[in-house]
UniProtKB/TrEMBL annotation, chains A, B:
Domain L-proline 3-hydroxylase C-terminal: 203-282
Protein name as annotated: L-proline 3-hydroxylase, C-terminal
InterPro entries in alphabetical order: Asp/Arg/Pro-Hydrxlase, IPNS-like_sf, Pro_3_hydrox_C, Pro_3_hydrox_C_sf
Pfam families: Asp_Arg_Hydrox, Pro_3_hydrox_C
Domain of life of the organism encoding this protein: Bacteria
All copies of domain Aspartyl/asparaginy/proline hydroxylase, residue ranges: 38-180
Single Gene Ontology MF annotation: 2-oxoglutarate-dependent dioxygenase activity
Record Gene3D superfamilies: B-lactam Antibiotic, Isopenicillin N Synthase, Chain (2.60.120.330), L-proline 3-hydroxylase, C-terminal domain (1.10.1720.10)
Amino acid sequence: MQTRLLGTFEIDHQKLSQDLDVISHFDFDEPYIEFSCGYPWKSAMVWTSGGVLGDGVLSRYDNRQPCLPTANGRKLAYVREIIQNFFVVEHLLFARVVVMSNNVLVPHRDFLELEDKSKDEKVAHRLQVPLATSEDALFMEENVIYRMRVGEVWSLDATRLHSAAALTDHKRVHLILDFADTGKETRLVKFGEDRSAGIPDTNLAKRPALSAGDRDAILGMSKVIDMDNFKDILGIIIKKHYRNDAGEGFVWETMREISRLSGDPEIEAHANNLYEHYVLSRTD
Amino acid sequence: MQTRLLGTFEIDHQKLSQDLDVISHFDFDEPYIEFSCGYPWKSAMVWTSGGVLGDGVLSRYDNRQPCLPTANGRKLAYVREIIQNFFVVEHLLFARVVVMSNNVLVPHRDFLELEDKSKDEKVAHRLQVPLATSEDALFMEENVIYRMRVGEVWSLDATRLHSAAALTDHKRVHLILDFADTGKETRLVKFGEDRSAGIPDTNLAKRPALSAGDRDAILGMSKVIDMDNFKDILGIIIKKHYRNDAGEGFVWETMREISRLSGDPEIEAHANNLYEHYVLSRTD
């Protein structure tokens, strides 16, 4: 499994616009808030096991019932049409509408927290369907920065280090579909899959290299960091990674180096604990 | 009018706890989002002219109807009891429940945006009634940092440069009451007012002076600032002001100096425009 553009489908912009208007009035949850550096990442469950709305934390759902639209999902005619026409609902575990603006997510790996479930109930495939986006809505996988566009369907390898960014007030809205493990050959989509591997060149965000001077200035924040602004400084480093190529591992290496240089054992321990939590223990 | 502790009343903690539980399930608005550096400041209107819920932006309400509980307010038995027992509802324009966590507000002055309304419809007195708070929930007025505690009622001079901070995950919940201009002698509260002037010593947050080295390190962020992280850096400076005494005017002077030192005309202009908006044009 690798992150790749699965394919494209034709969007009905009028129907989409009606659903986006309904979505803008949703009462969102703010689960996984510890991942956000900026405005909280918001989520509304639209299909779940038994149609239960819940609180948006995936590990709290009982996945043994058939996947059905929630109270939110029943209000979204076009999203329902997209799900039923283009995806194999039989293997669907969750569908969520997620909204981001002025926010970057801490680079992390996923799926470990669901490991105590059986194969049929465990999220094995995560697909993303952008519903509203902009040029400042970006994704990161290791040292690759890319854009997903409306009309595209993406498959993500969430076990690799990844993050998302909305460096703008504009609300980026994605439909995220989580599927159970179906065995290698089972298809999850009902449209012609793009057989090209990986992330197309036209989706890549080209970045200039980070200069040595910029790197030193960023490390200089070791003299400013404290427990009150720790998350702000982590957010600044993540944003720099989205705009400048500073090599794989830049975010966590820089955050840990700043924390070490601060000379404050509490800050250094906090950085190492977060690194352990987001990067090391979340994968197998 | 000066910012001062108006008085105290005895809290019924059991009734308060029931209301706080109801409040935790409110569908909040996020008005004035441009003031937040961190998680958005959230507000739920509980009394308004005619009981209209609206969107939380005060200038959009028609204040000519009597002030009544909204759909939110009708769910809060104890807040209603507090308002009716301790305040002169006749002069009330708005009551709001506001929630903050992991956030600092940009230092600003208030009330200019309502100036086209007549005297009876215009907010002239802003009272704050803390419902849930912590030692890391702080307030700023010019170069004074202080705490408001549950059971206290405060009158704020919102025309002076002020800000609020919740340097914690803990949700700080306040009831804010806005009253019309009643003439000097009219009382707004129905309890014995504390006649001592200003902010009591026991409410002040003592801060060590900011060292010259810390000041230089903060100015060093001029080499890191860009349009993506502008608000993050503003937030870091505001937090430093809450924890260290660096003199009156520190926040805006430092933000404008960092922006000037960045050498980027877009950043410098942005800082000056924000200063104009938050500090100069919001007062008369």
